[in-house]
Amino acid sequence: MRMLINVPETVVDDGLRGFAAAHPELTVDVENRIVLRRDAPVAGQVALVSGGGSGHEPLHAGFVGPGMLAGACAGAIFTSPVPDQMVRAAAAVDSGAGVLFVVKNYTGDVLNFDMAAELTEDEGIQVAKVLVDDDVAVTDSLYTAGRRGTGATLFVEKIAGAAAEAGAPLERVESIARRVNARSRSFGVALSACTTPAKGSPTFELPNGELELGIGIHGEPGRERRPMMTSGEIADFAVDAVLQDLRPKGPVLALVNGMGATPLLELYGFNAEVQRVLGERGVPVARTLVGNYVTSLDMAGCSVTLCEADEDLLRLWDAPVSTPALRWGR
Amino acid sequence: MRMLINVPETVVDDGLRGFAAAHPELTVDVENRIVLRRDAPVAGQVALVSGGGSGHEPLHAGFVGPGMLAGACAGAIFTSPVPDQMVRAAAAVDSGAGVLFVVKNYTGDVLNFDMAAELTEDEGIQVAKVLVDDDVAVTDSLYTAGRRGTGATLFVEKIAGAAAEAGAPLERVESIARRVNARSRSFGVALSACTTPAKGSPTFELPNGELELGIGIHGEPGRERRPMMTSGEIADFAVDAVLQDLRPKGPVLALVNGMGATPLLELYGFNAEVQRVLGERGVPVARTLVGNYVTSLDMAGCSVTLCEADEDLLRLWDAPVSTPALRWGR
Q1: Do residues A196 and A77 lie in contact, with contact meaning Cβ atoms separated by under 8 Å?
Q2: Which of A134, A172, A175, B131 is surrounded by the most beta carbons within 10 Å?
Q3: Domain co-membership, A259 together with A153
């Protein structure tokens, strides 16, 4: 166990306290595990609220701020937040223009956001939901019916967040979010298992010298296990898995994502291979983002997410955003 | 070996190619391993050039852009770049206002930047140098005479970079850089060793359940090895080591830095403990930055860097910056 923690029981709250200290520009309610835009509710703006189990940082709290999420709820490690958190966050950020819940497709999250939507509507707040289910590795999984939600969550939150920031009404923000999800696909690879603080040992056995193709962000099993492959071979496999399902007819937005413990140098090297494969397959790349954004604690590995993005979506992608983990200007 | 690479020989060039693809806003000369501001030379501006061994990403290439570095040179893994790279970078970015070399205190880097400074001056370019030596863990080390240069490099590059961006002359940019270094101290801790691609196995033995206090960013030995400590105990030790040497009389700028493989959730939790210790010691914190900025490949661990920052330095810290790894606006 090589964890930088006090005791497993306080990991999430300790993290939120440290996050609050580093980000005075956000409102952090440690007790309720909610992070909010300080200026929320913003008059006339639809508010995006997301959330999920902890252990995927910077997702979601790191994406709260102008141009992206209005609020995020943190659950225990790899465990959905509860409806009460979502209702609270929605009530705090709703300006009257309504709230969009961005939900990764895991059974617990889906159930809790469904219940939260009902309770929030009972309070007279307009609610829409978008389910993110971009992972092509497997249909049905340890915690999911249907495809899992992974890297596309970042695309949905950024692009729909930009539409909300620009003043689009709830229906339009929701339809953009659905469009982004429908046009996005992901595939992930683990080079090592992750270790949850409570367990203190790897969540699954991955012998040194092997990798797991199609891994989920909680270490759920993927498609197959193989002897170690080169970065180029992994890129071939992952990009082809995504393209077989996505079949883009135009340029794509690419996220080359680290699972948490893969060095940035290696991740950039992997990006070179991803770009090579996309070039060979005749897929133009409009934008590329490389970094650790949708992680799985201390897992080594990576994922590729592609989104077929028209001019409209690219303009929203390029729009200013100001959050702890994603920030760019005019 | 759990590395996401092709072969050890191409890791640095693969990384630079992938970096170039992700950052079309920068000029990347993969052959010469140089990254430059696309708009360099910027008329009237002093240009900061840094560089060092690869394996510490995002340092240094990730800090190239308006408000920070004008150029960065990448060496092989944990190996200084050569003078020719530095001379080339300096010649490419000099506007006539001169160049400041930012040099981490390792024997190879110092020698090569010294030689590069002479060669660059021979070309009629004004050159100044600042040596970064903030690590209080040890004096003299495997690769260093005197203290090692670590986290304060980010402070020097950001703050002196802001002064250069604002049009300060070389003498003033240099004196600000020296002031930042003189007022900064760091201390690092390893929870695991790092693995260089060429070696393929950990660079040193750190048994599970032990940690190394005072680690260097290449895995150089620190002060002592101990059985695993809590995040709070590590914060006490690291912050006290820094404060004993720094003795700040005013507010500090804090960098809570990950070594590469420590999850962001844990790093934020560690920040909560760092803030607690600083509070207990009566040291006010003006700004905090948390993330993986000065890394050591796949090492798990963290470091704390504090800089005693007056209003002048804080204003420069807050000034806009637009680089891959550090970006904020007005």
Answers
A1: yes
A2: A134
A3: no
Are residues A158 and A220 located together in one domain of the fold? no
CB pair distance less than 8 Å for B260 and A263 = yes
Whose CA is closest to A34, among A139, A156, A116? A116
Separation between Cα atoms, residue B247 and residue B282, nearest integer Å: 11
- ipTM field: 0.97
Q: Cβ of A55 and B208 within 8 Å?
A: no
Half-sphere exposure of A177 (CA within 13 A, CB side): 36
Does residue B219 carry a pLDDT above 90?
no
Convert the pLDDT of each residue in A239-266 to its tens digit: 999 999 999 999 999 999 999 999 999 9
Residue B264 phi/psi, 5-degree rounding, is -60, -35
Q: What is the DSSP letter of B73?
A: E
Does residue B95 sit in the same domain as residue B52?
A: yes
Q: How many CA atoms lie within 13 A of A227 on its CB side?
A: 0
User: Based on the number of CB atoms within 10 Å of its own CB, is A120 exposed (0-12), middle (13-18) or buried (19 or more)?
Assistant: buried
Residue in chain B lying closest to A279 (CA): B21
Query: How many angstroms separate the CA atoms of B263 and B259, rounded?
Result: 10
Contacts 24+ apart (CB under 8 A), B201-206: B201/B1
The torsion angles phi and psi of B270, rounded to 5 degrees, stand at -65, -40
Terminus-to-terminus CA distance in chain B, angstroms? 44
Query: What is the CATH classification number for the domain harbouring B309?
Result: 3.30.1180.20
d(CA A314, CA A159): 8
pLDDT of res. A184? 98
Instruction: Give the per-residue pLDDT at B299.
Output: 95
Q: Looking at the 3D structure of chain A, how many domains does it have?
A: 2
d(CA A283, CA B196): 34
Tell me: the pLDDT tens digits for B111-168? 999 999 999 999 999 999 999 999 999 887 777 789 999 999 999 999 999 999 999 9
Nearest CA in chain B to A231: B5
Domain of B226 in residue numbering reads as 184-317
Q: Show the tokens assigned to B222.
A: 């620190």
Q: Are residues B155 and B207 in the same domain?
A: no
- Torsion, Cα of B199, B200, B206, B212 (10° steps): 70
Contact, B54 vs B12, CB < 8 A? yes
User: Would residue B218 show up in a list of annotated catalytic residues for this protein?
Assistant: yes
Q: In this structure, which amino acid lies at residue B123?
A: E
- Chain A contact set for B290 (CB, 8 A): 18-19, 22
Task: Identify each DSSP E strand in B164-284 by its residue range.
Answer: 184-190, 210-213, 224-227, 252-258
